[in-house]
Amino acid sequence: MTRRTHFLRPIRPALFLALFVSMPAAAQAPSAEWEEAEDEEDASSDEPDDLETSAASESAAPSVEGAEPVPAEDADPTTGQEAPARTPTSAVQAAEAATSADVDEARGGGEAASGQATDVPPAAPTPAPSVATPQSPVGGADAPRSLVAEGSNYWRPIRRGLSWWGFAQAQYHSSQLSEDQLAPGGAPLNRNQFELRRARLRIDHGWENAAATFEMDGSTVNGLAIGVRRAEASLLHRGDGDDDAPPLVVVTAGITDLPFGAELGESQRDRVFMERSIGSLALFPSEADIGLKVWGAYRFVSYAAAVVNGQPLSGSGFARDPNAAKDVVARVGARAPIRDDLRLDGGLSVYTGRGFSPGRDATKDSIVWIDENNSGTAEPYEFIGVTGSAAIPSRNFDRWALGLDLAAALDTRLGQTRLSGEVVVASNMDRNLLVSDPVLISRDARQLLLTLSLVQQITDYGLIGFRAAYYDPDSDLIEQRAGVFHLRDQTFWVLSPTVGLTLPHGRLVAQYDFIRDFLGRDERGVPTDVRNDQLTIRLQVDL
């Protein structure tokens, strides 16, 4: 029996190889009975042969638990270098690894290996962050969604990668000035209607030292209009801040927001009240202008300075900039956290530039007939001669504005409370309501703007607010009544209570504007208030 065992031992590996190659894949692993018989036979064999077989097996197969690459058995005869490592995927290599492990376990030497080698798939690589995934604007989920979603433009971060967002504002607007009539020229006087106030879609892409922004806006307030709201190309230096912090220095060119006051820097998406105050709309018909802006923030200080055309993009002025002079506008602000639940914001703004008076064309002498007796027949005394006038050339004039804004935000159990105020003094800056033209009136027109607002968040699902706005378009206007000169009062007072319902991606707000002005006349010809209050109910949904 001993002689037969030693006779078969030299050819046993070849027999095992042929057996495993011929067996099906499911039956190639050695059975438990076969392993037990082999262990007994190995124990009765001579010591040198078993050690040699075990060493050969261990050099050809690594530990199965680690599934590490198996070194090559032979070197490449052409290069003399070892062949690349391979993994034990074949059935023969699995059997050799199992046999080596059984021998080691039977002798009690070394750590026990597993009985069968299996393919261990490589770990899936960590996917890189997609640059096409939409990102939320400033604020995030932790910010009060009824008051802060995008944040002030003066503290706007520029994130790396591609992001987009937008919102739609649909509203019903009603005014006491509404009439079912047509104005001279054919424009309807009805103001009670459903409107699409804003439909914004914005795309941002930021890199390490560059960024681009493109924003479209649609509206039906004065007919269907779609245009570019913002188009910015920027170079920047981020400093030590991350993507959620404003860059240290940004140089922006294109259609960009004007850095003046708090209302111009407030996002239309975040604004609780329907529109900017009446004075802000008079001085700045649109928030954006075309030019070059340098802005940024460092710790608690923000800054912005721009050189712009000075021509509003609201469509109410010239299609192109009428003069070569450019306007300069700047703001320096600060944000100071007094306590964990209290924060103060403020800023000082300045605007200086050159306005444009279009002048007047020359006219010829003419004759005018006025039918005073309504007879339909021309009488000699009903003809009046009108002397022609010479042309008045276009001229530039100086204009400026100085503003101060302050705000305080307090976090309470009920929600965030925000109190803000703004004051602006200006000269020849009205470009929308009672347009300033000192060339025609031969003097400067001084403006004064005051705004005070309070907004209280009621949990995450409601808000109430109140705003008082005062605007004086011309503090030095004098008129004559019954032979007596009077200082004419053209001031506006607008009181706006607001109530709203807020949801994670939507807001329903109602606002009533009590407007007090001196645009009308009583039976004596004295300026009096015109009934022009208005109601607006708006539904806003964010994309």
Question: How are the elements arranged and paired?
Answer:
Blueprint lengths: L1 H7 L3 H11 L9 H13 L2 H14 L30 H17 L53 E15 L17 E14 L3 E10 L5 E13 L11 E9 L3 H5 L12 H6 L4 E11 L2 E8 L18 E13 L2 E16 L8 E4 L13 E4 L8 E17 L4 E12 L10 H4 L4 E13 L3 E11 L5 E4 L2 E4 L4 E12 L2 E11 L3 E2 L5 E2 L5 E9 L1
Antiparallel strand pairs: 1-2, 1-22, 2-3, 3-4, 4-5, 5-6, 6-7, 7-8, 8-9, 9-12, 10-11, 12-13, 13-14, 14-15, 15-18, 16-17, 18-19, 19-22, 20-21
Helix pairs in contact: 3-5, 4-5
What keyword list fits this structure?
globular; disordered N terminus; mainly beta; Porin; two-stranded antiparallel ribbon; 16-stranded antiparallel β-barrel; 3 domains; 8 helices; 543 residues
Notes on the protein architecture:
- The protein folds into three domains: 2-71 and 88-107, no CATH class; 153-359 and 394-542, Porin, CATH 2.40.160; 360-393, no CATH class.
- It is built from eight helices and 22 strands.
- The chain has helices at residues 2-8, 12-22, 32-44, 47-60, 91-107, 261-265, 278-283, 438-441, and strands at residues 161-175, 193-206, 210-219, 225-237, 249-257, 288-298, 301-308, 327-339, 342-357, 366-369, 383-386, 395-411, 416-427, 446-458, 462-472, 478-481, 484-487, 492-503, 506-516, 520-521, 527-528, 534-542.
- Strands 1-2-3-4-5-6-7-8-9-12-13-14-15-18-19-22 form a 16-stranded antiparallel beta barrel.
- A hairpin with a 4-residue loop joins strand 12 and strand 13.
- Helix 3 (32-44) packs across helix 5 and helix 4 crosses helix 5.
- It is globular and about 85 Å long.
- The chain starts with a helix and ends with a strand.
- 26% of the residues are buried.
